[in-house]
Amino acid sequence: MDQYTLNLLVVGASFALYVGIAIWARAGSTSEFYAANRGVNPVMNGMATAADWMSAASFISMAGLIAFVGYGNSSFLMGWTGGYVLLAMLLAPYLRKFGKFTVPEFIGDRFYSQTARLVAVIALIVISVTYVIGQMTGAGVAFSRFLEVESSTGLYIASAVVFVYAVLGGMKGITYTQVAQYIVLIIAYTIPAVFISLQLTGNPIPGLGLFSTHTESGVPLLVKLNQVLVELGFNDYTGQHGSTFNMFLFTLSLMIGTAGLPHVIIRFFTVPKVSDARWSAGWALVFIALLYLTAPAVGAMARLNIINTLWPNGIEGEALAIDQKPDWMINWERTGLLGFEDKNGDGLIQYYNDKNAAMQEKATAAGWAGNEMTRFNNDILVLANPEIAQLPGWVIALIAAGGLAAALSTAAGLLLAISSAVSHDLIKSQINPNISEKGELLAARISMAGAIVVATYLGLNPPGFAAQVVALAFGLAASSIFPVLMMGIFSKRVNSAGAIAGMTVGLLSTVLYIFTYLGWFFIPGTNMLPNTVDNWLFGISPLAFGTVGALLNFVTAYVVSGMTKETPQEIRDLVDSVRIPRGAAGAIDH
Fold first, then answer.
1. CA-CA-CA-CA torsion for 202, 203, 204, 207, nearest 10 degrees?
2. Do 477 and 507 meet the contact criterion of CB atoms below 8 Å apart?
3. b/e sequence 366-388, b meaning 16+ C-beta within 10 Å
4. 3 state SS of 346
5. How far apart are CA 411 and CA 155, in angstroms?
6. Which of 237, 477, 503, 578 could form a disulfide with 257 if both were Cys (CB 3.0 to 4.6 A apart)?
7. What is the pLDDT of residue 532?
8. Structural contact between residues 337 and 466, judged by C-beta atoms closer than 8 angstroms
9. What phi and psi values does residue 215 have, to the nearest 5 degrees?
10. N- to C-terminal Cα distance for the chain?
11. Where are the chain's structural domains?
């Protein structure tokens, strides 16, 4: 059986499974659509949360970022994982105890203000739309290679599949679909990693193989990788790169952004009891760790394999001949995500850092005319990994299904968060409070369909690669949602005026900084500053500004609250009832 047919069968079978689950778990009420009727087992919820969490950025992009930057991008691992600890300890149980369906609903009730709820809805939509772009981009990358269609066609197929199981099933259908998607994606990610670890180190556990001896050279794998990178003029893989200050801010932004992501938080509204919310977060960490402990090994081993492919005889020998390119290069060139150019016409592919002075001097003496691997999209590395390592065809088909499962699972969660905010927090709460349950359920499904259309359009015109776009979404969540949730739970002093001002300042400052200094959506004729360190305010990267936005949110909220009326007593009692276990001294029992 040829590879295309195998890919089609495996991906088609996974899609049929998702649609079948959606039909079986169709939501028949708003409670089922928003919160799966609060009947999800903590272990299953942990697995679904892990799938919701491990998006295209985790599955497709993260290993690629680590592979081509090294130590500097370990902040993704630290930030995303640390954020779940914050979520489990500081937010999930208290929000579940409050007993609402959505994040804006909690904010509106806690801060006794429909305006606060509306601002939260706006923040949620901005965050979720930004995040979903990365998922649609990742789905397009996977489709364009493995089903041999244009990425735009792939997006339309992905959107159609999500439409069926998300609009039909709501949270109930999405939950059980995400359990299936987790199983698909973790198997798809792990099996190629095991094969490659065995090839390079003889160790079947990738996380341990990363620190094992490279079989061919007899030196530790990371030492070997450092050696070949330095020979080619790149920074050593395990060295510290860039600004430590920005790395700290970026890691913290990812942590608090994780704890403030609406589509992750609403998963904890689906369990029967408050204690189940904390258990769900714990199980989610276990399931996430299975992939996150493997990703650094995947990145390092893939980078070494790519270099060995391009320099089969070592840096002192002859480079790879253009007419001897392996099939994986030819296949990915067709997608436009990988590119080569024989600049000096010698029929070979020279790959090196042409910005390194010492390496450039050596290249000039050898007659090279610049780095001839002109394009390598980070998002293709994990998907191309089985082909690079020449693994069996069924493994390649499996990685295709896994990449799509990762993108679609998170996209569904994000779209549900958007549709819930529109139907429950706008239509039901503010536009038509007397709407029937049947009418609200219809509004939720129509909102979901509309969100899918918008997400598809933005996926066709993405502002960056998957992990970069997702990082921006985390910054927005860190600066707007996380602070107001923390203050809502742990501070009785912060009132509605403070919450509204804090969210507004946090969100606007972060959005403006990103637009100004990252040049995300460049408009011809404007004076938008280019994305260079010299132009950043105090040297702060736009991707790390979420931490600053969060600080501005906290400060603004407390200052404004101190200048306005105190929080009403019934709200102070409400905060006590959420924070203090029933039966404890001073608890409010109602």
1. -140
2. no
3. eebeebbbeebbbbbbbbbbbbb
4. coil
5. 12
6. 477
7. 53
8. no
9. -60, -45
10. 65
11. 3-21+43-70+120-301+388-579, 302-377
Contact call for residues 144 and 525 (beta carbons, < 8 A): no
Residue 385's pLDDT band, with cuts at 50, 70 and 90, is confident
- What angle do helix axes 393-420 and 151-162 make, rounded to 10 degrees? 60
3-state secondary structure of 340: strand
Contact indicator for 413, 264 with CB cutoff of 8 Å: yes
3 state SS of 375: strand
Determine contact, residues 570/498, Cβ cutoff 8 Å: no
pLDDT tens-digit map of 416-438: 888 888 888 888 888 888 888 88
pLDDT-based confidence at residue 120 (cuts at 50, 70, 90): very high
Question: What are the start-end ranges of the H helices in 519-584?
Answer: 545-563, 569-579
Within 13 A of 305's CA, how many CA atoms are on the CB side?
Answer: 28
What phi and psi values does residue 65 have, to the nearest 5 degrees? -65, -45
Query: Is the C-alpha dihedral spanning 568, 569, 571, 572 positive or negative?
Result: positive
**Which residues, in sequence order, are CB contacts of 21 under 8 Å at separation 6+?**
165, 169, 173, 176, 177, 180
CA atoms lying within 13 Å on the CB side of residue 261:
35
Q: Which of 163, 168, 141 is nearest to 153 (CA)?
A: 141
pLDDT of residue 462: 64
DSSP code per residue over 438-456: HHHHHHHHHHHHHHHHHHH
d(CA 542, CA 536): 8
Query: Is the Cβ–Cβ distance between 50 and 284 less than 8 Å?
Result: yes
pLDDT tens for each residue of 362-372: 888 888 888 89
pLDDT value at position 242? 67
Strands (E), 105-258: none
H or E element, residue 247: helix 244-259
Residues with Cβ within 8 Å of residue 319, at least 6 apart in sequence: 310, 311, 348, 349, 350, 351
Q: Which of 456, 444, 455, 453 is nearest to 419 (CA)?
A: 444
Query: What's the sign of the alpha-carbon dihedral 252, 222, 470, 376?
Result: positive
Token pair, residue 552, equals 């501005």
Query: pLDDT per residue over 7-19, tens digit each?
Result: 889 888 888 888 8
What's the CA gap between 227 and 222, in Å, rounded? 9
Query: Coil, strand, or helix at residue 150?
Result: coil
Task: Give the Cα separation of 31 and 437 in Å (integer).
Answer: 10
Packed helices 244-259 and 545-563: angle between N→C axes, nearest 10 degrees: 60
CATH number, span 3-21+43-70+120-301+388-579? 1.20.1730.10
Distance, in Å, from the CA atom of 583 to the CA atom of 590, rounded to the nearest integer, reads 11
Tokens 């979404």 belong to: 473
